[in-house]
Amino acid sequence: MTQVMREKSWFLLLLPVLVLASLCSRGQETSAEPAGKTFSTSTAPQAPAALLYSQIRSVGLDASRVFLIRDASIDRDQLHITLADGTIAFTEDVNGRVTGAFFAGEGEILLSPPDQAERASMMLFTGAAILEEQFQTAYIRFNDDSFQDLQPQLRPFDQGKEFVATWNATAKNLAEPDALRLLLTFSRFLPEERSTSHPQDELTAPASTLGDRYMHARIGSAKLGTMDAYFDSLAPDEISVAQEKQVEGYGYYDVLAAFSPKIARVGSFSLEKRPDEIAIESYAIDIDVRPPTQLSADAHLKVDVLQGGARAVLFELSRYLAIKKVEWAGRPVEFIQNQALEGTQLARRGNDVVAVVFPRALRAGEKLELTFSYAGDVLSDAGAGLLYVGARGIWYPNRGMAAADFDVRFQYPQGWILLATGRRVSENPEDSGTASENKSRWVTERPIPVAGFNLGKYTKAVSKAGEATVETYAASSVEKSFPKARTETFDFTNTPPGRPHSSTITVEEPPPSPARNAKIVADAAARAVQFFAERFGRFPYSTLQLTQMPGPISQGWPGLIFLSSYAFLTPSEVSRLHVDKVNTILDKQVTAHETAHQWWGDLIFWRSYRDQWISEGLANYCSMMMLESESPAEFRVVMDKYRQDLLRTNKAGAVLKDAGPVTLGLRLSSSQFPDGYEAISYGRGTWLFHMLRTMLRDANAMLEEQRTQEIKHASPEPFVRALLKVRERYAGKPISTRELIQVFAEELPPSLRYEGRRSLDWFYEGWINGTSIPRIELQGVKLAPKEKSVAVSGTITQKDAPRDLITSVPLYAVLPGDRRVLLGRVFADGPEASFRLSAPLGTRRVVADPEQTILSRPH
Ligand SMILES: [Zn+2]
Asked: How many angstroms separate the CA atoms of 98 and 94, rounded?
């Protein structure tokens, strides 16, 4: 029986738009695509950016620029492309520049990823850790002087016309994917518009593309097929290699390897995200919601320009929302709304890219007021008075993860209840107009990284958690796709695109009524708020609202949780859904998990895609801490299930854990492992936090044996202490894996300092950035009784693990009556490590990790 209820957190929706080219994908159902959409722009009579964009995206080959080429190379740090022998045609000019070339002949691409995780990723997809691939064709796009640089290797060719006739259609088709990226560069050279409305410099600074270097090669090889190699100085991973794949009707964009050469030189720790060029300080949005599917909105953005020089800035917006106009300080500016690359994460999330092109270069330190007007079908209707906002992308223009203030005024028909992020400051004011309309205004209490709303025909229930109010909003029935017959196979058609779920489940009539259980859910969420607030600091908002969401998926927004219909079932209704115990427990866990996201994911979010696992793993582990406090046995059952899942094999015989380390983020979901991200970030992520917690707890317990009773109870356990520090330091901010690990390292007692250093680098390298689940055993254990104790010695072995894996292993003495005493933590350093410890008199044997605190294979 599969787990029916799943969680989809909003953060899957948001990533920096600039990384769109280097992101992996999950399948995008083609039926969800708006038909025949290409791109739309402002209809201003003078639209220089639209003209430029149109040229960049459809440029063809120039018959007068076809050459023979030999022994040429294009090198960008670790990425090497050799054009050994063949013919090359360069593209026609775009504003006096050559921006691309098509090559046919013998070529080779060479890429040697700098760290183990990226080499393993390359191995997973290609069968070799290093990419060394012959190719026959290459379409290369660039924004630099590559044309001039290749001149010495060019020789005249007299059949240019024939070559272009053969390849021009292909080249023109391949021109589009890089068009927006190149627009960012070349818009800088557009003539600046003189106007009185927008402040001007006396002397316009010359356009500069310093530090903006881009190259994309689409390579056709006989062995591996078509692949993309990128060098982009503006992307978090400057170098990446990716490949489109079709598996069982779904499109994927597998990222074979991605890294930043600069970071690679200083070690493989998580990337620090490059500062964005703009920051959106606040949103004021007027939005008219027309159930079941439509909305129209004017979004006013206050923007700080952090880095000057750009003429074009990208935003992300649902592909189902069409922009009518974009204004800067009340005056229309050009925009280009472009369909995201099919198969990329952006497209899968239902979003597109919008480029806003300014009439002059932006200046660092200036403040912009932008207004976006847009409308479209972005809501989905699940029936029974249930809507879902968010399945079709994000409903306001955004730049990814960054905190902003929101002030949103909604208008919607009477009979609907609307809930949104922020605090409701007014509802149906006297001047609300016609009687058939509702109005409400929601203002955030603190900057939040993402805003959401939901509406439905709900019944309300209220509970209290300290100062915070917890409200649930549930419909009297479940969505129309909810199972009705006794046994029925069905598809969860309301899941977001690309997330197919199907399951055979057994349900007896009558259908459940979530409204009847609304109070039970409110009380459960209030208990979770209480539990987390006692440990990780107060609930960050005045109210937590939970609204019933159709389908098996839940989402946590700041102060607002869309909770799956399934979470509103009574225990007996749940037991009819599952025959196995573990899925019943997991369903019960969803409310606590989503509530934990209020701290981890919403209040504190993540820096780059490599840090996103923190939110999932930590929220899930915190819900597990709560479960452990209520039922240690159920805690054990779920932890065992996560471990079993990681050791599961796919159809090709690959083990799920080998999808990669948690630090690959959404890249883990690939053609090889379609659910890789969920499985690794939940499963391995939860185990990693359990390892950290128990490691600190054991070491601390040994330390405290020497302390007095008063000190022992003076402070919370070190894991909770570290998370409280994280809360204090990073509230309202993103955190990276490196920063998180450093906070935990501060709590390290002497016995956990590997080679005497107060650092968790060894844990990062082997466990966070690794994939191993070792088999840990003791060998040659000798007990030598002394006068007052027993001297214990032996060897810890780690099998099924890389040779450099370091693990902190707790060793216990087993005393008469099977009583166990913790002897201490020992570093298993590599395949074999000897140890020497003192045990109490009466020790019969020594065992390693009997409590199963390490993600290791069961004995
Ligand atoms: Zn989650």
From this structure: 7
